[in-house]
Fold these 2 entries.
Entry 1:
Amino acid sequence: MLEGLIGGLFNGISIGAVLLIVALGLAIVFGLMGVINLAHGELMMFGAYTTFVVQNVAKSIGGIAPEVYIFAALPMAFLVSALLGLLLERTVIRYLYGRPLETLLATWGVSLILIQFIRSVSWPMLIGLAVFAALFLVGRWVLTRYTDWEQIKSWANPVFLGLSAAIAGLTLFLIESSGSDKFTRAWFSTRNVDVTPPSWLRGGINLGATLQFPFARLFIIVLTALCLAAVYWFLNGTAWGLRIRSVTQNRGMSACLGIPTERVDALTFALGSGLAGIAGCAVTLLGSVGPNLGANYIVDAFMVVVVGGVGKLVGSIVAALVIGITTYLLGSGTLVLMFPPTDFFKPMIDFFTFFATTSMAKVMVFALIIAFLQVRPAGLFPPKGRSVEL
Amino acid sequence: MATDMAVQPRLAAKASQKRKLMIEVVAVIAIALVLIVIMPMLLSGFRLNLLGRFLALAIVALGIDLIWGFTGLLSLGHGIFFALGGYAFAMYLELNTLPDGQMPEFFSLYGVTELPLFWQPFNSFPFTLLAIFVIPAIVAGLLGYLVFRNRIRGVYFSILTQAALVVFFNLFNGQQKLINGTNGLKTSTSVFLGQEVGTPAMRMVFYITTVIALVAMYALCRWLTSGRFGRMLVAIRDDENRVRFSGYDPTAFKVLVFAVSGAIAGIAGALYTVQSGIISPQVMDIAFSIEMVIWVAVGGRATLVGAVLGAVLVNMARSLLSERFPDVWLFFQGALFLIVVTTLPDGIIGWGRRRFGPAISSALGLAPTDLPYLDDSAEAEAVVETPEFAEK
């Protein structure tokens, strides 16, 4: 009995830790900026694929590298996702601040593009993209430098866009038709790829006959705790963290006091995206990696943010753990065993047996979340004051 | 004398409105006739079936427009209501095909010997007809009530509807014994009105039904959005707090309009199911429900014509593009989302009205109209204030 309880608690916490590490970046971006980022799952996916690439490089190096690649993969995944997030913020999201529903749709569009990008990325495609970006940006730069840009803007922008796209497309076509097969083929197949964890992360600590704490799960719990500590320190102990918190509380006043709010926005978004990358790296330990990886986590992560309330990290922590433990207890059927098998408890047992699968547990958890929101509509730790309006 | 002078312009405005309505009625009937009479002559059976499906999807788009374009509620969970309507009709068809007392074949695969209780009423056709729109309406109303009651709105509402969608997907996907799980229910070989559903004659019947349903739903939405009720919806969209302070209860209106929208989606689901030949939990895919929103956005929010046009256009583009270049479709769709949201917030119809509206109105001898949805007026202005302030 005790063993079952400890096992259940551990598994629940480990599910909660995965949820939390995914939701952490989301909570920062949503809680601090009010931006719903539906591409968060895809940023995670990029982190996971970065891990896959790092692992392959480590394998080709050989020696000790395959054992320690995860420590290189974590910062790499953070960096790749953060840069991608920065690009996203600078090109799309910053035009949509204050319009959360539009942001939601736009980021969904971005997520579709990212999924297809992973499916079909190849050298020719990258070259085509580079040619396009170079032509378009350099062309615009030259024009802004030497002509009256404001006057010709209305026709020059589309013309340049079309011209650069056409030239890039032509380049792409030429390379595709002449290049060798090895060069032109897509980097990743559309099927899932597997990341092999280092050997020291396989197996686990055995406690008793049936109880096992897998190392991979322990690693994720530790990683989540470290990320939390780092984020907490960053927000509360550094100058940029202070600026972020100040912009969150009162944007106008912060701007008056000389805080560069645009840079703060970009930084916050990059930080949230980078955390998605780390989450992506972490989930490679749990299963295979595919272009649709993000979709599996994103809805649950949003639920964590909704239950936790925006703006407070502690809310997300509690929410993630509670949701994780509840999901596990329901899904594994542990609750069924709690009742003595007598006729009196039969309805209860039948009821919990019905929900004792992973997918049905989600149904129950959602019902509980809706019920919870009847009592606390703004989550566990609601923000105070007029900023609540969204 | 003085009263006459005041009455004159009002009468003129009324006459102009009446004329406008007449023109609209004639146009709608003309389009419906073109769809029913001319399209079957021009298109092959396969293409006509596709068009019928797109028109069924246009009905959902009307429902989405009602709540998003007019009321400002972005639902990402309309797949639920679509699926409920579809399943209701498919369950009736399953039972109708079999002789009395027999059970659909798939039950025996999972060792179910007795027809589950909730299948029983679907033996009756009148009940099914009601269920197609009443069940989605009840589910939508309940979900809406539980959410709106607490003044949960905006993106929170969107996220919750999306989560509800995932939940319903799991529910239908996981319950093999009750509803055949992932495989869904096939309707193409079922019998309806003594004929097999998949035959060309029956397809034609469903196609015409779809066109009529589309016109009816258009009329319903038009009626709902034109009078006082419609103004209330727009008021809720633009400033809910002010509505509340004026002594109205927005919750009731929102619940009602969400339920109506769910009912419309249910009807669309039923019509789509018989034309595509199957209903499965796949229609509760997250992506599908978000696509519904983008149809409305492409056509133009808060313009009912836009919703229909957007749904048909986007789906046509999809079937054309994904047939030839399956790789490009996702890129194209993603770009569509981005472009519509960032540069074309009023959609095709909004852009067209702004550009050509005055010319068309004057050609028909009508008074110019204001756009019902000017993007940068309502929500944008209210909230954007702060970032703009920060830049200066």
Entry 2:
Amino acid sequence: MSVLKFFSRRSSAPAARERLQLLLAHERAVFGRTDLVATLKDEILAVIAKHIAIDPEKVRITTDTKDTLATLEVDIEIRTPNGGLKLAG
Amino acid sequence: MAEVLVVTSGKGGVGKTTSTAALGAALAQTGQNVVVIDFDVGLRNLDLVMGAERRVVYDLINVVQGDANLNQALIKDKRVDSLSLLPASQTRDKDALTAEGVERVINELKGRFDWIICDSPAGIERGAYFAMRHADLAVIVTNPEVSSVRDSDRIIGLLDSKTEKAERGETIEKLLLLTRYDPVRAERGDMLKVDDVLEILSIPLLGIIPESPEVLKASNLGSPVTLANPISAPSRAYLDAARRLRGETIEMTVPTEKRGLFGSLFGRRAA
């Protein structure tokens, strides 16, 4: 078991990579380096905000590339005054 | 036509001065006329790494302020005669540099050298701006480590907005020099890989310099590593990088130390 644990121990480089990608997406938006994630975030938010009240602080956008597959993950927290979720416009 | 190259990183201690000396010497070894300029006013070190610390009489500030001319301030390397050093001032502060003065010095150097290599100070203050200001291309020295990659990203943003070339609407060429790389640790998953850093920073790769004790040995002796031990792994990586700067296409590898029988038997290089 301990041998298995040794071989399956989690390496740290992927964590470094993920943390950097997330951080730099935000910093590039702030410091002005043209950045696709920042542009996408603004435009996606604008579209959604037309129909649903959203808190810009509760939005998380991440991108990831694995081999030939690139993913864009948009995570938006939506709350209505009574705490329930209400999507009907 | 002279090429003005800035060696920069944002973060300190990643190998800017080592790389300036090594690339400068490597380019000079191929017959190019090279001057390396230390922009770290108040904390000069390029003279020490190049072994010229006892030959400094006049410096960049003296030339910028008109107290000395370039002939008086330039120090010719004793090993490679097409290599010169323009040292920074150790006693003055960085406010002694002026935009007009730096521009005049760079323009004068353009008439004399093929390569003008500006060793940037760490940080993003005046000295760093002056070092990058007139650059045609930038070498971003980065360690495979989170804080270094983050600072490099910031510097790339500044190069794209604060340089003369950027202000003219042109793009400044930016090349990544990955230093202190350890392929074994990267393979084990405990260090960012070359591809990780390339993907995050999205700039072309100039070279991969392996972590090596030869770099410290060379600076102990006051010699660019490419002159101190040209066959060592970091030297071969720097020499390849210099040839890429000259437009040659060279396969990208991470050089490793060639061990002799003695070294292989005892697991370390014979000194």
